[in-house]
Amino acid sequence: MNLPPQIWINGRIVSTAAARISPFDHGFLVGDGVFETLVARHGKPFTPTRHWRRLVASCTAMNIQAPEFEVYLQAILATMQANDFTDARIRVTLTSGDGPLGSDRGEAPATMIVATTALKPWPPTETVMTVPWTRNERSALAGIKSTSYADNVRALALAHAHGAGEALFANTRDELCEGTGTNIFIVTAGVVQTPPLSSGCLAGVTRALVLEACAAAGIAVEEVALPIEALRTCDEAFLTSSTRDVHPLARIDQRAMPGAAGKVTQRVAKAFRDFVAGRDDP
Question: What is the rounded distance in angstroms from the CA atom of residue 216 to the CA atom of residue 271?
């Protein structure tokens, strides 16, 4: 993997090779941190305000000091400039800083890191696999973009081993929930549906934009609890995320989708593009 030469850490740009965090940092020790992933295109971060608001919400829930918007944005821009990126995947990570060798926290200030990599294209359609593990909609981390991602790492590795590019979780009620880094939408009888936040899924920034775009374009859309079996009968399905935008599904488990990149999905994708077009920070 080619790493970018420069990152931003705790207020300054440093070389990736020289960058260090303490071995007592709680983000490293116990996954006690939060993060945001966003993209930049043509030199401009996309939806930075929405991502900052969600970062603040995660920090508030985890009792981690959130950065001011100006600090967050300037760190992103400085990191992009240091690496000469115009199109980039951007990762902003905050941890609770140094702490004891356990779950108790110390008194150290938060650690903040901004890293960027080149923005890589996805294939035109995606294949997904449902995994045997569940999201806990009553978890202390439900709805928080936490750095505790081991569930996702294991699920995605299983999906990759079976030739899929993303893994999908049900929740403990056997309802459709989300992917490892995506929200899931299905289309049934012309109606677009997606799990509600009460399912335990993350409040995706692109998910919200798609809901707003559909409303603006007059496309019927519902946030509704869906049985995981709905994946076996839906007409179309697509993923949303900050790096994927609207990404049609060609296969779910062993089922080839009859409407891969179907008419409704295409309408949603166009509505999304039209909704965000020309807006610096939609």
Answer: 8
Task: Domain ranges for the chain, please list them.
Answer: 6-118, 126-276
224 C-beta neighbours (distance < 10 Å), count:
14
Distance CA(186)–CA(171), nearest Å, equals 17
Residues facing 245 on adjacent strands: 241
> Rounded distance, CA 15 to CA 9, Å?
10
How many Cβ atoms are within 10 Å of 214's Cβ, its own excluded? 22
CATH class of 126-276: alpha beta
- Look at the pTM and tell me if it is higher than 0.90: yes
Average pLDDT over residues 74-90: 96
Contact 144, 62 (CB under 8 A): yes
Question: What pLDDT shows up at residue 97?
Answer: 97
Q: Are 259 and 269 in contact (CB under 8 A)?
A: no
Residues 6+ apart with CB under 8 A from 25: 95, 97, 98, 99, 111
